[in-house]
Amino acid sequence: MIQYENVLTTCPYCGTGCGIHLQVLDQQLVGVLPTKNHVISDGGLCIKGWNAHAFVNHPDRLKKPLIRKNGKLEEATWEEALQTIADKFREIKAQSGPDSIAFLSSAKCTNEENYLLQKFARAVIGTNNIDHCARL
Amino acid sequence: MDKRINELGKTIEKILPEVDGVIGLKSGPSGIVAPHLFAKERPEELAFLAVWPKEPVPDTLKIILRAHPDAKLAIVCRGCEERGIVEMFKHAQLKLDNVMLIGLQCEQSEAEFCRCAKPYTVHAKLTVGQPIQGVADPLTNKIAAMNLEERREFWKQEFEHCIKCYGCRNICPQCFCNVCALEDEKWVQTGRLPMPNPSMYHLIRAMHMTAKCVACRECEETCPAGIPMAVQFRLIARDVKEMFNYETGAVMDQKPPQLLVLEEGEYQRTGLPH
Amino acid sequence: MNTEPKIIGFLCNWCSYRGADGAGMARLKYPPNVKIIRVPCSGRISPELVLRTFREGADGVMVLGCHIGDCHYSTGNHRTAKRMPVLKKLLEYSGIEPQRLYVNWVSAAEGEKFANIIHEFTEQIRALPPFRETMESRTPIEIKPAEKEAVWTSA
User: Fold this and answer.
1) Do C95 and B152 touch (CB under 8 A)?
2) By Cβ atoms counted within 10 A, which residue in A62, B118, B180, B252 is the most buried?
3) Neighbours of chain A (3+ CB pairs under 8 A)
4) Is C153 helix (H, G, I), strand (E, B) or coil?
């Protein structure tokens, strides 16, 4: 049984919010199509939008957390990684204060993930040093 | 418009049990239309069948056939899309043995929107709708009537707005090269905006569209800057018809001129010295 | 404006380049404006190559190959004969004088024809304004680091 559909979504990159169709063939993401008659994008896409599907299954993406031990990055478990982060944040916050930590978010994350990160930065760590790769 | 959807829906329903899927247009959230593969396992999706705005379906056919070479498919295609499919078949991008073409004829308003001279199918055995006569393209005629300086100025103004989104190339039903000349640093400089004058990108694209452009206007519709680049492609198509007696997608058995050597009498029509 | 026209000639190794050689051996005089680039066959000349040659500042481009039927690779010049007329038409539709692109067939024995062609074409190009002037462009926005600029000599 062959399955092909176009899933309507919004381009994750800049703040314009162009409509984008993700081409899905047999549960695999294969490409992108613009959306005609969309109120914002009107059938056009910029070069980032045309390649918005590329990062999803990119071979460069990490599959396991990596921790630097003895100058080399080694694979670790999620528990170990999260514990290391929590310990280090506590240590740095105690030694140098909350403003010594900065947070950098990404356009490839969802809005919800970005919201969580800034809440974490502001409420948990106590710093305003949060920025986004698109400076939004 | 409604009449065609009903007729199309009935035609598809009849074919659905015999094929692995029918490629057509489906209306999605907010009424936004996209290509879709209707299958007999999901007959309820036919309720969302749509015909306008048209989408580039030949590429969808190619994607599915690449993954499933033996699939039996049917595809709803307009005149331009049918020409695109036939042309891709001539360039060995897909096999038409198991593909059934359902020809959707365009209406007057649609033909005027696309400024299309041939808004009807010629190869499809099953057709939906009544074929109408095409319209001339006023913009192509306007450029053809301009003199050299006016044309230079016109294209300089137009190409200055290009943002190099590569949309025209991505959406073209005929652009299938795995290694594209437009991504080669030798021909198209990266990181340079606005486009240089003359614009390498657009002129190279126009040359590569020789005997390939099917006048679907998808490139012009997807261009965020509204550049009418298809005018150049169609002007060249007139010369291809005159020099090599070739019209893209018109005759199934006629090989495109770039795959053949010079035929009898062609050289005289090229205007080259004897 | 009295600048000397800059012309690039793509000559095929087997016929036209040997014809040019023949012109040299016979001590025939012809204008020095043409810089000759030897290629294996005129069919190797892609439209991208001709367009880049214009972009880099050439006022005229010549593509000289073997006579039809005499190509060393049997059908290479058939490709030239199909491609170049369409490119000339495209130049015309884009506002570039189509006579800036010159296509002809010169065999290895036609040294005199070669010299005559160079004379004729150089005068033709001299009568036209320099290519740069006809296509002034805006200064581009500096986006890339300077090292990459070395690949492209034009603005």
Assistant:
1) yes
2) B118
3) B
4) coil
